[in-house]
Amino acid sequence: MTAMTSQKRQAILRQAAGYLELGELLVDGAEPTPATSRKLLLRSLDTLRELPEQARSGPAASLLEGEALRALGDWDAALPPLERAAEADAGRIEAWLGIGWCLKRLGRLTEAITALRRGLEASPQEPILLYNLACYHSLAGNVPAAIEHLTKAISIDDRFRDLTGMERDFDPIRSDPRFVAATHLTV
Predict the structure, then answer these.
(1) Taking each helix axis from N to C terminus, what angle separates 59-71 and 35-48, rounded to the nearest 10 degrees?
(2) CATH number at residue 42
(3) For labelling alongside 140, which of 31, 53, 104, 116 has CA 20 to 30 A away?
(4) How far apart are CA 141 and CA 5, in angstroms?
């Protein structure tokens, strides 16, 4: 049996990433995964199984596996590969976001907040981590922390201000004067 070449491993990872990207196009976290997306996401997972075990448990493949499982709505199963990816490369914000996403949907909000905090330790200027942390703090009823993280996210990238209007996670604090000030004033 011949060992798989690095080129072949990279081709498999690109193929799996392509299936994942196409599969995620129609996924809306609030709705069940459409059949077409489901088929593509499962194809991504099948493609990853072509890798040797060592490559399959590496950070790139783990992230793809976790993201596919997350998009399929299998949040419990998505956590181990996402955690492997985050542990191997703490700067991979996609892994931390995926972990937070899954934990939130599993009703483990405190753990989701902790995961995003860990991601911020590695990437303190990532506005998407700050924004999501603000969302989770809003849901947890921690208004000062939500406002603090939201304000930081907006100060780094003003586009996050526009997202707040549609973000249901901010509904619990939407009428709070601090939220109104953070989302309507120039920071």
Answers:
(1) 160
(2) 1.25.40.10
(3) 31
(4) 51
